[in-house]
Amino acid sequence: MNRPLSPTRRGVFRAEMFRPVSRRRGGHRGPVAALLAAGVLAAVAHTVHAQQDPVRPVRVLGAQAAGGPTDVVTRLYATKMSELLGQQMVVDNRPGAGGSVAGDIVAKAPPDGYTLCSAANGTVAIAPHFIKLPFSITKDLTPVALIGNSPLVLMVNPSLPATSVKELIAQAKLRPGAINFASSGLGGTGHLAGELFKLMAGIEITHVPYKGAAPALSAIASGEAQMLISGLSSGLAFIQSRRVRAVAVTSAKRLSLLPDVPAVSETVPGYEAGSWYAVLAPAGTPRGIVEGLNRVSITAVSDPDIRSKLTAAGIEIETLTPGELGEKIRVETERWGKVVKATGVKQQ
Fold first, then answer.
1. How many domains does the chain have?
2. What is the pTM of this model?
């Protein structure tokens, strides 16, 4: 169980407090023992230096523009991290090129724990299938922590005569290509989630990309497009105000925030999609720093106040070790690569 850090234990880089080794009573240390002791002390000194509290602000580069889902999640996370670290965690938004702008800056930064990247799976596991990145996700970045998962919601314009996935599929089959399927952009998670839905449901709908979740939601609300799969964090206000209708969620099971909205998989077995938000550091960052950041991150998202705010924004908390996050990235990258190949989706 993770306990909030007390002021005396605050700090991402401190793995343990080190105590001086007491000299044994009596006896005399010979030359070999002295050399061994000196070596141990040197190693301890190096470890303490690598794990000391941060002495300046920590910068976390956001791979998405201000106001987007990744930015909202990152700022909630950074606020609590600043408190726990005793140093400000500054959010620096660097959107562009599928998130590769932020990733490239972090990949080339000194591996000292002072420069991090916050990105959604669209940047980490999907973008590499569409664009040639100036860096390698697996070789130039190292996984630090998972902030949480954001299930997607399949929404339609209220005028569309479809209140369930079954009815939506029937409408699409009745008029192939007539339903405009909006997304927040070519090759994004919402776009590929829609392509996967088309593939598994055996329907034909017309993809219309927009420049972000906000304009895509506005298009659905106005009737310019009829269907959208987007993050719960961005679509919840539209759903609650009844400007759009939530037909289904893309998670494996129903969500506590929308208990009456079924999962797509209840009609299309095996269907599942979603976003998640992760923090990464430059490759070569010392293990002690990475593990320390991971522990403090878990403490941050486990805080009742932050947890409630993330939950209200549609984020499901999940904590992973750096190794587990690395495996998640590998599996998701492989999975979406198969969808891209099967559907022939290409970014323009």
1. 2
2. 0.76
